[in-house]
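Our preliminary data section would be incomplete without showing what the modeling component actually yields. Below, a chain of 61 amino acids is followed by its predicted structure, encoded as tokens that our downstream tools consume directly.
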Amino acid sequence: MSTDRILRWPEVRKITGLGRTTAWEQIKKKRFPAPVKITEHRVGWLESDINAWLASRRRAA
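Predicted structure:
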């Protein structure tokens, strides 16, 4: 059974190269995966969602 890691923003930024503002703008436009709530004040992104987004970018290029 594989587990889907939850990535915090610094790792998402490192993987995608996006800045925080750009990422949130893209989330609002539904062009970037929405984060999942970890706690009341913390969010993260599912690794599989980020990988799928990266794959879609490769196909679009």
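The chain has a mean pLDDT of 94. The chain is about 50% helix and 20% strand. Preliminary results of this kind motivate Aim 1 of the renewal.
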